[in-house]
Automatic annotation (TrEMBL), chain B:
PANTHER family: NADH DEHYDROGENASE SUBUNIT 1, NADH-UBIQUINONE OXIDOREDUCTASE CHAIN 1. The keyword Cell membrane applies. It is an enzyme of class 7 (translocase). NDH-1 is composed of 14 different subunits. Subunits NuoA, H, J, K, L, M, N constitute the membrane sector of the complex. One of its GO terms (biological process) is aerobic respiration. This is NADH-quinone oxidoreductase subunit H. The chain crosses the membrane at residues 12-34, 81-103, 115-137, 158-181, 187-205, 245-264, 284-303, 315-336. One of its GO terms (molecular function) is quinone binding. Belongs to the complex I subunit 1 family. It comes from Thiocapsa roseopersicina. Its EC number is 7.1.1.-.
Length: 217, 344
């Protein structure tokens, strides 16, 4: 138990420090990388809670895919710190208000009244043969199948909406269609063999005017 | 001997096991670079390196010494910490992934339930090394390479993940040992046959994930010099190189494990009664891995580089639909208990 507790405090400290860094770093790339660190150490915390499926999926989905796209966008930002700080005082009151409300809400839900071992006794550790993945799957596809499917549909709607909002075809630009390009065959598409009669060095006037036309067709 | 081993603390035991996995792996990486130059050399009717040692057999060691002696140049306006961290981030997942890899029946460092997921998660982390290197170098070409790599890896990871979903539907387990056990039988009961489209998608996505030719647009030396590692020199560059080759070996070994029966023998039990060498064992896994490692080199020597937009089309518009359809087919086949793979 002692070692487990030690690990918990190590990962919890890393998570908190990294999360603090996310909102205090000036450089957005550094902030995103600290967020990645926070994700990885919270995944470790979940694994300590015997939720290894959730922990690994957190790394796989958030760190492996979502944050890569985040970095991808943030890397291309040209950050000007002066303009970022320009409205600081102006927005401070509303920002502080929102922060206070948020903190209050969080406190009401996970405050000492609803939290801790007195209210919820620690669950017994799972037997060694129990697979977290299987248990989760059984629950997701039986008891929670409707919420699960509805969540999936909501995500699909979000994808469709995002694509619809950003997709526009400009008529004045020329596109290449790679799907058509890879279908090109050697025979009729790439080369065309033009038959033309052999010519003499000194050609008659009629043939000379006809021949170039045929070869450039 | 066994008593002595059991007397050691668990941490020391694990450490010895890790060394026993990583050292041969790094040796293999070193000689894989030589094998690459030799194989591609012979494919292109050259001899390849032949000066250092007998027929060039000491070439990797000469290369390593050379790279270690070289200076690590840090560009003036580079982000120093991230610049030096990037190669380490690149190689760490490539080595850590081997923790759950079973080399033979029960011969595995960490026999965890969610082994396949762990592997998928770790291979998806490798891209950070590339992206961070590209950004921290503060160089146009490096940034371009990093962006290409990010887009490519996100695209192919989905196809790869779906291909692995097919494997886990077929095997009914995320544990790598159990996946191999589910392929028990002979050459024809391995998963490559019922999962043939997924096998193809997995192999090609694996090549794309490791940024190897013909998908090496992240390096694309004819367009962006050397891509993400253009500013790296000496050992920092060598570590990227090591990571790439360790990843290639990992993908090859995983293809052998997930689709080609791992350590299982291709012959039916009845044929090889009493011939121990033809029975199941680590040597079969090694042989299959070597075959896929050769395929990597073979492809590099054969195909020209894909164009970026065609890579994206292949990943999103071809592979992902194929995998989704075939997962459905596999699921139906499992439900129908299609022999010989899923007969009860």
């Amino acid at each position: 138990m002692g070692f487990e507790k030690f690990l918990f405090y190590v990962f919890a400290t890393i998570t908190l420090v990294a999360a603090g860094m996310v909102i205090t770093r000036r450089n957005p790339v550094h902030a995103v990388l600290y967020l990645v660190l926070a994700f990885i150490s919270s995944a470790a915390l979940w694994i300590l809670l015997e939720a290894e499926f959730l922990g690994i999926v957190l790394v796989l989905v958030y760190v492996g895919a979502v944050m890569v796209l985040f970095l991808f966008v943030v890397m291309m930002l040209d950050v000007d710190i002066a303009t970022l700080r320009a409205g600081f005082i102006r927005y401070l009151p509303i920002g502080a208000l929102i922060a206070v409300v948020l903190a209050l809400e969080i406190f009401l839900i996970v405050g000492p009244a609803n939290f801790g071992l007195q209210q919820f006794p620690a669950p017994a550790p799972a037997a060694p043969g129990v697979s977290n993945t299987e248990e989760l799957g059984l629950l997701l596809y039986t008891l929670y199948v409707y919420p699960f499917e509805i969540a999936a549909v909501i995500l699909l709607v979000a994808i469709v909406a995002a694509i619809r909002l950003t997709l526009r075809r400009r008529s004045d630009t020329k596109y290449m269609d790679p799907a058509q390009q890879v279908r090109v065959k050697k025979g009729p598409d790439r080369i065309r063999i033009v038959k033309m009669p052999s010519e003499r060095a000194a050609v008659p006037a009629v043939a000379a005017s006809a021949a170039p036309q045929e070869s450039t067709e | 001997m066994i008593e002595l081993w059991n007397a050691l603390p668990v941490v020391i035991q694990i450490l010895i096991k890790i060394i026993a996995i990583v050292l041969p792996l790094l040796g293999m990486v070193a000689y894989y670079t030589l094998a690459e130059r030799k194989v591609i050399g012979y494919i292109q009717v050259r001899i390849g390196p032949n000066r250092v040692g007998w027929r060039g057999s000491l070439q990797p060691i000469a290369d390593a010494v050379k790279l270690m002696m070289k200076e690590i140049v840090i560009p003036t306006k580079a982000d120093k910490v991230l610049f030096l961290l990037a190669p380490m981030i690149a190689i760490a997942p490539a080595l850590a992934a081997w923790a759950v890899f079973p080399f033979d029946e029960g011969l595995v460092l960490a026999d965890i339930n969610a082994g396949l997921l762990y592997l998928l998660a770790l291979t998806s982390l490798g891209v950070y090394g590339i992206i961070i290197a590209g950004w921290a170098s503060n160089s146009k070409y490096a940034l371009l390479g990093a962006m290409r790599s990010a887009a490519q890896i996100v695209a192919y990871e989905i196809a790869m993940g779906f291909a692995l979903v097919g494997v886990l539907v077929a095997a009914g387990s995320l544990n790598l040992g159990a996946i191999v056990a589910a392929q028990e039988g002979n050459l024809l009961t391995w998963f490559w046959l019922p999962l043939l489209p997924l096998f193809g998608v997995y192999l090609i996505s694996g090549i794309a994930e490791t940024n190897r030719a013909p998908f090496d647009v992240a390096e694309g030396e004819s367009e962006i010099v050397a891509g993400f590692h253009v500013e790296y020199s000496g050992m920092a560059f060598a570590v990227f190189f090591l990571a790439e080759y360790a990843n290639m070996i990992l993908i090859s070994a995983l293809s052998a494990l997930l689709f080609m029966g791992g350590w299982l023998s291709p012959f039916p039990q009845a044929w090889i009664e009493g011939i121990a060498i033809l029975g199941d064992g680590f040597h079969w896994l090694l042989l299959k891995t070597f075959f896929f490692m050769f395929v990597f080199l073979w492809l590099r020597a054969t195909f020209p580089r894909y164009r970026y937009d065609q890579i994206m089309r292949l990943g999103w518009k071809v592979f992902i639909p194929i995998t989704i359809v075939w997962i459905l087919v596999v699921a139906l086949a499992v439900l129908a208990e299609l022999p010989p793979w899923w007969s009860a």
